[in-house]
Backbone:
């Protein structure tokens, strides 16, 4: 049997193998989960020619050190510090050709929280309902720690641009692609009316990101609007990005690992683009919410998805030419 | 036959740019619930597109979608055109699950408190819990919990002021007019009256490897719990010895002989 390519993990702390999420989950009572920064995850896979749903690594807060057994093609996106290969710096948000045995170091920059590592051909990991996304509630998923070896479906011959003798590509990715904004766009929620004029303060106040941030929710401290009407709410499905006001002095923004039902009224809902941004917020950061419309949010989201389409197309074209 | 359906209304509210909340309002809560689940089933069947998924609860469906593939307006127009009564009389009766429960003590730390609120002795409360079949209304968070109609107590049961940080898997709890079985350990503000020794959640048999991510083989769309909305649960009181005997046995529907 030919030895199978693998990615050896020399150090990792809070790192998992994930994908875009368990789309079949919510209808069956499970959270969708998956990469919190969906744009960065999609971009990482696009840059190495993978399907959008291919499993990739998500490193939160701490860097990872990796060593492939074979030549591979990788990409690193999200909020990484400049990656190094055997000590040499390489740009993030670009394909990275790594030779067998070279050491890849991915740090997390001060500007964000999560980095994504995709490898051409992706990882062979267990799936549930078609997705490898970890679900902490049911104890499913592939956690990456020091000493883990991840099986790869295939290796990739070294990619060297004949003109430059190095892996230099321009896929039209804007320079500020990984910038994390302190402003989160949100649309008034389905229960906004229950908060009356007090809702406006959600958009006028400043909030501080607390250390209680994970796949389930992001807690921010600051002014909590109060409902102007009272009464119990029947359990209902709550959207990802829902801004809720449970008892206490913190707002809760639901992330992709949220329980799918809740009895709290929904003040506002973050836009898809704002959710990617929220995934990169760090404790202590000052943020505010900015009111927008669903139509404007969709336009902003489509702009990003079309950018991803262009990246995927250019990557496929470039690799085909170099073969 | 006069159709009381005309007295119900469907309201659609946006939930950000990637979800809609569809609420059904009507005098008959059972018909509202049934309509909500039919609507979700119809949407989950892929009629609008594979990126559209629906989470039904009591009086509402959360519809989630990828705005790259469809729009909230398009989905809303499909829902408005949907025949709310289609299949209303074709629903098959759900399965019945027999669920053994150890009541009180460590397995049900709130049982005595609930008995005080209900104003009846503990054995009578256990009888009330076990006498009826509890209809599973929906699967809720966390992890596909079975959300059921509760026992026929005379009063609703208040929640804990401060939720417990952890209730164990298999906990049977009540709050308001509802009852719930939780498949996994999780925080909860409900009143835990008992615990089943049965294993509820199964993830191992579904987690095959080797499907190539690029070809994305047929995803296993099975569920991780042995019940679904419309099924009914019958609780059976057991003692500590019975609990020990059944610990780790798989929960499943009753097979009537």
Residues:
């Amino acid at each position: 049997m030919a030895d199978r390519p693998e990615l050896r993990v020399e150090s990792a702390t809070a790192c998992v193998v994930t994908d875009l999420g368990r789309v079949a989950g919510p209808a069956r009572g499970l959270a969708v989960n998956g990469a919190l920064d969906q744009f960065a995850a999609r971009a990482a896979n696009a840059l190495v020619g993978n399907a959008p749903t291919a499993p990739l690594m998500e490193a939160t807060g701490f860097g990872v050190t990796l060593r492939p057994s074979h030549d591979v093609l990788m990409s690193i996106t999200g909020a990484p510090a400049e990656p190094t290969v055997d000590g040499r710096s390489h740009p993030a948000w670009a394909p990275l050709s790594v030779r067998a045995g070279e050491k890849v170091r991915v740090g997390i920059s001060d500007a964000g929280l999560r980095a994504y590592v995709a490898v051409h051909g992706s990882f062979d990991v267990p799936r549930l309902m078609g997705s490898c996304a970890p679900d902490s509630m049911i104890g499913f998923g592939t956690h990456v720690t020091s000493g883990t070896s991840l099986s790869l479906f295939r290796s990739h011959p070294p990619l060297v641009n004949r003109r430059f003798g190095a892996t230099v590509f321009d896929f039209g990715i804007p320079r500020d692609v990984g910038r994390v904004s302190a402003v989160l766009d949100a649309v008034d929620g389905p229960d906004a009316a229950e908060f009356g004029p007090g809702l406006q303060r959600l958009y006028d106040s400043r909030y501080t990101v607390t250390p209680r941030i994970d796949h389930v929710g992001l807690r921010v401290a600051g002014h909590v609007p109060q409902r102007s009407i009272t009464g119990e709410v029947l359990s209902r499905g709550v959207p990802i990005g829902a801004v809720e006001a449970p008892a206490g002095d913190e707002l809760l923004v639901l992330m992709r690992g949220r329980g799918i039902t809740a009895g709290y009224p929904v003040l506002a809902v973050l836009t898809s683009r704002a959710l990617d941004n929220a995934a990169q917020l760090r404790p202590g950061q000052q943020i505010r919410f900015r009111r927008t419309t669903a139509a404007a949010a969709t336009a902003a989201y489509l702009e990003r998805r079309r950018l991803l389409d262009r990246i995927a197309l250019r990557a496929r074209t470039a690799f085909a030419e170099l073969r | 036959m006069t159709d009381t359906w005309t007295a119900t209304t469907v309201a659609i509210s946006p939930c950000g740019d990637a979800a809609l909340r569809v609420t059904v309002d009507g005098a008959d809560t059972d018909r509202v619930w049934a309509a909500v689940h039919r609507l979700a089933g119809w949407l989950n069947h892929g009629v609008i597109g594979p990126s559209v998924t629906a989470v039904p609860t009591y009086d509402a469906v959360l519809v989630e979608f990828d705005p790259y593939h469809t729009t909230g307006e398009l989905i809303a127009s499909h829902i408005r055109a949907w025949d709310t009564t289609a299949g209303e009389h074709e629903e098959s009766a759900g399965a019945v699950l027999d669920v053994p429960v150890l009541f009180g003590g460590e397995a049900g730390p709130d049982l005595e408190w609930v008995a005080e609120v209900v104003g009846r002795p503990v054995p009578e409360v256990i009888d009330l819990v076990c006498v009826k079949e509890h209809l599973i209304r929906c699967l809720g968070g966390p992890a596909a919990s079975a959300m059921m109609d509760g026992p026929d107590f005379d009063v609703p049961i208040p929640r804990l002021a401060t939720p417990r940080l952890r209730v164990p898997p298999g906990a049977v709890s009540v709050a308001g007019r509802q009852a719930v079985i939780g498949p996994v350990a999780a925080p909860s503000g409900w009143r835990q009256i008992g615990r089943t020794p049965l294993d509820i959640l199964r993830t191992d048999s579904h987690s095959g490897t080797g499907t190539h991510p690029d070809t994305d083989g047929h995803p296993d769309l099975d569920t991780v719990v042995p019940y679904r909305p419309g099924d009914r649960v019958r609780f059976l009181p057991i003692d500590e010895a019975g609990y020990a005997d059944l610990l780790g046995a798989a929960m499943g529907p009753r097979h009537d002989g």
